[in-house]
Each structure stands twice: as C-alpha cells, then as structure tokens.
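User: Sequence in, structure out. Go.
Assistant: Echoing your sequence, followed by the structure tokens.
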Amino acid sequence: MKIGLFLAFTAALLLGCQQKSDNPPVRQAADPALVVASAELLSLLKLAEVGARPVAETLRVAGRIGFDEQRLARIGATVTGRVTQIDALLGQAVGKGDVLARLNSSELSSQQLAYLKARAQLELNRRNVERAKSLFEADVIGAAELQRRESEFQISVAETRAAADQLTLLGVSPTAIERLGRQGAVDSVTPVVSTLGGVVVEQKLAQGQVVQPADALFVVADLSRLWAIAQVPEQQVSQVKVGQSVSIEVPALGNEKLVGKLIFVGQTIDPETRTVLVRTSLDNADGRLKPAMLASMLIEARPVDRLVVPASAVVRENDEDHVFVAEGDAAFRLLKVKLGPEQGGIRVVQSGLKGGERLVVDGAFHLNNERNRQEMEGS
C-alpha cells in the first residue's frame, strides 16, 4: 500500500515538472531608447564632447512701427473761436507755416481794440510830452508837471507793448500787429498754422465747432524717419544697451530685415507687463513704412558662455529634440533635450545635458534608424 502511494506521488511530481517545462521563459522588454551599433554603423558615426562656448543670442521681441516723437507736432488754436474754414484734410501733406484752418474769434477782436486804444493813448501822451517840454522852456509850467506827463507817456509805452505781446500770444504775427497799428482795421479771423512740415495724421475739428486753446485740432508728422518700438522682458534687459545693432522684420514688407541701432533703453519697468521699452530710429524716405505696422525686433545680445551642441547632432522624435549619448563602445542612448533655435550651425542647451557627455554629432540619423529597427524586432 505504501509503495503504491509513493509511486502515485512520484508520477504526479513528474507530470507537474513536465507541465512547467512546456511554458516558455519570460523575456524582459528591451530598452527602446538604447541602441547597439554594428561595426559597420560605427564607422559612419562621429562623436564629440558637449562643451560651452561664447554665444551671442538673438532676442526676438514683438514690436511696432511708431511716429518719431521728435518729428511730431500737435497743433491747436491760440484763441477761443468758432471754426469757419478747414484748409487741410487728413492725410494731406503740408509745409511749415501753411494754414490748416481759420477761426472767428471775438476774443481776438477785443484784444485788437485794446491794442488800438493803447496805441492811441500812447500817441496822445507823446504829444502831451512834446507840448509840456515847450511850455516848460517858456516857463509856463513847472518841472513837476513835465515829469507827470513824461510818466504818463512811459506808462502808455508799457501798456502798448503789453497789448502787442498779448496779440502775439494769440497768434498774431509782428507784421500783422504793425499793419493793425497803421490801418486800424480789426480782423476777427485768425488762422491755425502748421508748425512743422509733414503729413496731417490726425484731424479733430468740424465746421462751426467752437474750440479752445487747449484743444489739439491737428497732428502733423514728418514721416521721413520713424521709430521701431518694442518691449523687452525684464529677465533679458541686462543683455541690451544703447548703440546695439538690431534688425527689424516687418511682416507687411515680406519680413524684409531693416538694420538699425538702439537709441533708447527705458530706465523703468512696466509693472503690468514686466517689460522695458526700447526703440530704434529707421529711415523712411521711400515711405514704405507706416506707423502702427507690426514688427519684430531682433536684438543681438552680448556673448555669454553657454552649453551648445551641433545642429547635426539633433534628432527629431515625436516633435521633440533628442541627441544620442554614448554609454559604451557601441551603445548609445536617445536622450530628450530642450534646445534654443539654431544659430550658425549650433543650438544652445536649455536643459537635458550637463556638459562632458559624448554625443553623436555626425550620423545620428542613421543611428536612429537602427534604433527603430531594433525596437521593431524586439517587439
């Protein structure tokens, strides 16, 4: 009985072992990022060590074309009055001294009358002084009377000069003031005159409108030179300074590059955008640039030491940048990295490498094909 039980146990044990031996061994999945190159493929590869070198990065910041504020004039009326005529329209070219509009002003009439009265009183007091001098020489009046009349004359001189100055402040030219004094004809119409040669870029008045001296009726701009204006993030402002060369790309001109130099770097940071204002001056003699055009400003920053890799070492995989790092004589690992844009055949390392790694700088494309093949065969 015991022998039968032993034989049955032995048979069951052998049957279990046989069943285990029929199951294939479990294989560990191959590392998809690791590739082993054949001797033939190794002969096509070139390796180099990751290192640092001075790199002058180009900052690209959004900007726009704007007016040169030193070639811009905001022109208003010198008196309170009603618009009777508009001589310049929006977009019209005007010269310095051209009449832009005409106003009818009762204030101007009143001041002209005040000037004429002062001038008439001046003439009267001048004659009184001459008569007083004759009477004094004839011993008819005393010295005190002569002095009184001379004092009245000096006061009239000052009042006439003040009235003329007031007319000048109201926009009346010295020639017109002299003509007023000779002819005595009061003219209540005053012109609004351009103080700059250029183009009318703003017009803010209508026929019959009553305007004040504080109102800006016209804006005239000289468009032969314009500004390119941009906002540089505060993290990069240490890399820009006045005098640096910049390139301006204007989409409306087919991204043609216009070259200039920074003429201004702001001293304060905008608390809302955390940026600093910079600008450059551009020649616009041909009139191709228009204010408010969108532009990109490319600023070449001063060189700083940065880790770089050759552009030929970069492999695009799943829309991301990768490089192959050597892990032995024939083993290489595909490593994801973050790189800056290409500049002169190199790319700045932003993350993923520390320096000193040996990279495949030539033949990375073939090595990636071999990695893909090995991955497919392994799967």
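User: And one key feature?
Assistant: The radius of gyration is 44 Å.
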